[in-house]
Specification:
By secondary structure, this protein is α/β, with parallel strands linked by helices. Helix content is about 25%, strand content about 25%. The chain is built from nine helices and 13 strands. Strands 1, 2, 3, 4, 5, 6, 7 and 13 form an eight-stranded mixed β-sheet that branches. Strands 8-9-10-11-12 form a five-stranded mixed β-sheet, with helices on one face. Strand 2 and strand 3 form a beta hairpin. The longest helix has 18 residues. The two termini are about 20 Å apart. The mean pLDDT is about 95. The structure holds zinc ion. Zinc ion binds next to helix 4.
Length: about 270
């Protein structure tokens, strides 16, 4: 990963919640029973992130239309379009969208951003378009409709594929870590304070960082374990704060945005 100290500084980083669900530790952590710990409920948030720097507004992920799909019993809180309206952001204001990976809950609303540059993992692109070519998307968390939006961005010359660590915007760098999905991206942001490592689904919950516990859903378990240890190593090297992708406790660790958008957004920086 590029050292965040080499980047420009983001003026604001928000975590925005659009849906929620309650899960059991035993459901979400791979082989949880092998740890010999009691089961417990976890509050799972569904988020996207809004980063503002001198290159404009970057979204990390986009959420999805929960009411239209409702695949795992997610409870809609505020739809992505309504979140953006509360934040005073028009889709056309968004300069770029980084997709952490192509699962529906991360790219479902990508089609809103018809002008934005789309930054995705190269391995992610190759994996899912390969599956589509084989007619093997049945039962996957990535759909034909989601991929059609990525394809449109590609046809329009707006798709940028990340295959190694690279700077994607003034204050933002990304690198593929794989594991959960083949081209899962880890995103680093320089801020006024500690740099941020936005893990998205490379680490869903804080426990995964504390204990390097894999999540139950992965395309490569070894790669997921290496990704978790890499995130911890980078956090130490850069004195960075790691934000897991789906943990509701993030909202207790950071202040709510002032005004009505405080119901959905916390200020990470
Ligand atoms: Zn997810």
């Amino acid at each position: 990963m590029i050292d965040p100290a080499e980047l420009g500084t983001a003026s604001r980083v928000l975590s925005v919640k659009y849906a929620e669900r309650q899960v059991q530790r035993s459901e979400v952590f791979h082989e949880y029973s092998s740890y010999g710990l009691p089961d417990a409920t976890l509050d799972m948030d569904y988020n996207f992130w809004v980063i503002t720097d001198s290159d404009g507004i970057t979204l990390l992920d986009t959420g999805y239309d929960v009411a239209a799909r409702d695949w795992l019993g997610e409870i809609p809180v505020t739809s992505t379009p309504d979140c953006l309206a509360l934040l005073g952001i028009e889709p056309s204001d968004v300069t770029r969208v980084i997709t952490s990976h192509f699962h529906y809950d991360h790219i479902g609303y990508l089609g809103l951003f018809t002008e934005a540059e789309v930054v995705s993992g190269g391995a992610e692109h190759d994996y899912w378009f390969g599956k589509r070519a084989e007619g093997a998307l049945e039962g996957e968390f990535t759909t034909e409709a989601d991929l059609a939006v990525v394809e449109r961005a590609r046809d329009e010359g707006r798709l940028r594929l990340v295959r190694d660590a690279e700077r994607v915007s003034d204050a933002i760098a990304a690198r593929p870590v794989g594991g959960h999905c083949p081209g899962e991206l880890l995103v680093a942001v320089r801020t006024e304070g500690r740099p941020l490592l936005l893990a998205s689904d490379a680490a869903h919950f804080y426990e995964q960082l504390e204990h390097e516990w894999p999540f139950f859903a992965f395309t490569d378990l070894g790669e997921m374990r290496r990704a978790l240890s890499l995130i911890n190593e980078l956090a130490e090297r850069f004195a960075a704060t790691v934000i897991p992708g789906h943990d509701a406790r993030t909202r207790q660790r950071f202040p709510a945005l002032t005004g009505p958008a405080g119901a959905i957004a916390v200020v990470l920086a």
